Amino acid sequence: MFRRGHPDDRRGEGQRERLLHAPLHLRLRRETAPYHQTLEKRLHLLEPGLSLHRYRLVLQSFYGFYAAVEDELPRLVATTPSLGFPLRSHAELLERDLVALGLSRSDIAALPRCANLPRLCQTEHLAGCLYVLEGACLGGQVIARALRDRLPVTDKRGLSFFVGDGTMTGERWQLVLAWLENLARSGACADEIVASARETFCSLRSWVELMGATG
Question: I need a surface site. Which of 45, 92, 114, 160 has the fewest CB within 10 A?
Fold first, then answer.
């Protein structure tokens, strides 16, 4: 099982060492990739057979997670060096989509909210969490393009969450990455930020599975 002293092992150790000294966003991308890919596969949002019912179920589960997480973020932002970008309420976008898909405001208010959230106690936790939430907006552009062709939804009716900032998404993402790198240079613990990003993915995955939103 474990090949002590094998050349591939030493090469792997060198790669891990280089990764530890790489820019923070590269570490985050590399070390969270398996979590991201697993969640994406479980949701099946790009499957040709995706139904409107299942799409609505995914959005409902996302709302229960994002609304709960975003309630906690302002407290952390208040004690964190300036973000350089405004917080984005993804829960509001999800609410807009759910209304477009037939739910009432009271239906949405009654949706279950995730209680098993990732740790949100310090700046590193905020950074890891925002990396996941903001990074999802990039993939959202791809998902939105696919859903336009498969479901009776439009950018303003049912796709607000995935469309997000539209053509400005890339520019906002660069601001997020710059903030993350500044945190690392200022002494924030990169290991804690990476761990928090992984926790966020795991928390979201557990929640959508609990809510029956995975295929």
Answer: 92
